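Folding follows sequence. Below is one example:
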Amino acid sequence: MAKRGRARKEARRGLPHFYGRHAVEAALDNPDRDVRKLFLTREAAATLEIPDGIPVQFCEVTDLARHVPKDAPHQGMVAEVAPLEDLLLGDVLDAGDRATLLFLDQVTDPHNVGAIFRSAAAFDAVAVVTQDRHAPPESGVVAKAASGALELVPWIRVVNLSRALEEAAEAGYWRIGLAGESDALLADALTPGRNALVLGAEGEGLRHNVGEHCDTLAKLPISERMESLNVSNAAAIALYAAAQR
């Protein structure tokens, strides 16, 4: 089933092009990542350990520009990769007594999602869970912002986020929705056991139905001079708090 899912993603979206040293090296180091082709300057190639069997096309710096977004810092290396195989939420739920899951409710900006993956890796989150239709696909932008973390933290895509939160609850996770209007602080809402942090999109926040499927709502203790934080910054602080509980 997972392989068929990956084939559908490839057909629908085309193959992602990861760029930049951290993203490319992490993809090469990940045994679960199928790297189809490398586009490299000769200078960059000399600094990489390239596994046997991966085709390499040597390019000038200007030629690499057509494989990446405009003005993207590719550092002389681009990897054409296949999307990782799909995982089920149930595959990651049994991750220890002090595990932290991160749910994103319609966070669609690829830079934010990539930055969140980087924080998730830094603070040992079990996985990042998103709704399949309201999250960016794997892409060079996400991988660049994640700085290699896309290869380290499982990305679970689900059809219905509320049902996924119910599944997490059945596995013993305490579901905490981040909401600025709450009177409770995140530090007081965290349990010493399994926690599931739920963050909504900037501006809109958590959708009502998703909030209804949380056990409690809590906020970060930010100054009244600021209404809110960027969602990737909020995720980093929340993950740090969970790691320090």
